[in-house]
Write a structure and sequence with these properties.
By secondary structure, the protein is an alpha+beta fold. The chain has 3 helices and 3 strands; from the N terminus they run αααβββ. It has 2 domains: about 60 residues; about 45 residues, no CATH class. Helix content is about 30%, strand content about 25%.
C-alpha cells in the first residue's frame, strides 16, 4: 500500500486546516472564526509533531491553495482608511500566515483579510 500524505495524524491535521472551507468550519465550530480554527489545528499538529520527535518516514504534506470566501460588504471606507497588517511564521521557515484589517476612521471594521502562506520565513509572512 502506497503511503498517503495523510497517513500520519500530523499530516491529517495540516491537510484539514488547509482544505476545509470557511462554511464547513463555521458549521463545525460556530463560536470560533475559521482562521482561528485553522490556527488551532496547525498548532495541534505542531505539538503532536514535536512530541513525536519530528522524525517520520512520510514527508510533510505540501501546502495547498485555499480560496478565501468573500465577506458581505458593510459599507465603503471613503478615501481614507486605517490598515493594520501583520504576518508571522512558527519556526523560520515554518507554517506562516498573514492578515490585515481595514477600518474607517471611526474604528469600524470593514474588511478582514487573512491568508495561510504555507511553509515560509518570517520575512515572507
Amino acid at each position: 500500500m502506497t503511503p498517503s500524505k495523510t497517513d500520519h495524524p500530523v499530516d491529517l491535521l495540516r491537510t484539514l486546516a488547509r482544505a476545509l472551507r470557511d462554511d464547513a468550519l463555521r458549521s463545525a465550530v460556530p463560536d470560533v472564526e475559521p482562521f482561528e480554527v485553522r490556527a488551532r489545528l496547525l498548532e495541534a499538529a505542531d505539538l503532536l509533531d514535536a512530541r513525536a520527535g519530528a522524525r517520520r518516514s512520510s514527508p510533510r504534506a505540501k501546502p495547498v491553495e485555499v480560496e478565501a470566501e468573500p465577506r458581505e460588504e458593510t459599507g465603503t471606507l471613503g478615501e481614507n482608511a486605517i490598515a493594520y497588517a501583520d504576518g508571522a511564521s512558527k519556526g523560520n521557515p515554518g507554517e506562516a500566515g498573514a492578515g490585515a484589517l481595514l477600518l474607517d476612521f471611526a474604528g469600524n471594521g470593514r474588511v478582514e483579510l487573512r491568508e495561510y502562506l504555507g511553509r515560509a520565513t518570517n520575512n515572507v509572512a
